[in-house]
Amino acid sequence: MHSSATRVQEHIGDPVSDAPPLDRDDLEEVFQDIQADIRFDHELNGCLNCGICTATCPAAHYYDFSPREIVQLLWTENLEGIYDAMQEKIWSCAQCYTCAARCPFGNSPGGLVMIMREVAIKHGMQSAKDVLRPFSRVMLKLISTGNQLSPDMIKPDHFADWGPNIAKVDAPLKLLRQAIPMPTLNTLETAWEVNLKTSIELYTIWEMTGVLDQLETIDENLFDVISDIMDEKREDYEDWLEDQEDEDDDEDD
In whole angstroms, what is the distance from residue 76 CA to residue 35 CA? Predict the structure, then answer.
């Protein structure tokens, strides 16, 4: 009688560690969410373990990251290894998709990483919170003004990751903005003016596509602040519409 071979790794737990294994139900739930993504079957087709993806990966040269490892973990359904990779390694990927262009099997490790990142956010993993926390200021600026960045955000203490070169950003921004002829650019709070209707439409897109649900999982305080801001904007827009209707009625009279 021949034994039936399987690529799936059933073992959970590190045999040389005293740490208790993670709950299998939780691990299976995470993997099922990854596997259920409509992109999963298009991004994972098999693996020769050739290493071409890792050899050409820019991130692999500087971080503890290997596209081949990601594919192997998912291909063998190594639940604990997948969970472990989602705690740090998946956040090293630069999403350049060089791996997808090189893989002889047509795999896309970068695409798989994107799915894993979204699932990490859905499950409120600490790694996702830590990675996305620095972007909270940008998200708040985007929702409140319609701009992702503004001149008043370009300050040395706001961009510590730029290293010593950020110290060179010491221009008289207010004076320079006043010299710009267009009046809409004479401000440091926004890069340009965004009207109320556009701002609400942007928020509605985030709301309908589930982005805000993910934000609430990652940063509840930021979610509450953004919700309050948008409630006020929606009220202002309703008031503006009523004023327009009143003006039209007065013209008809």
Answer: 12
What topology does CATH give the domain 24-123? Fumarate Reductase Iron-sulfur Protein; Chain B, domain 2 (1.10.1060)
pLDDT band at residue 68 under the 50/70/90 scheme? very high
Token pair for residue 93? 């990927």
Q: Are 82 and 15 in contact (CB under 8 A)?
A: no
Residue 8 near residue 76, CB atoms below 8 Å: yes
The CATH 1.10.1060.10 domain(s) of the chain lie at: 24-123
From its phi and psi, is residue 128 left (phi > 0), alpha (psi between -120 and 50) or beta?
Answer: alpha
pLDDT tens per residue across span 198-249? 989 989 998 999 888 988 999 999 999 999 999 999 999 999 999 888 777 7
Whole-angstrom Cα distance, residue 67 to residue 110? 7
Quote the radius of gyration of the chain (alpha carbons, Å). 24
Mean pLDDT over 117-135 rounds to 91
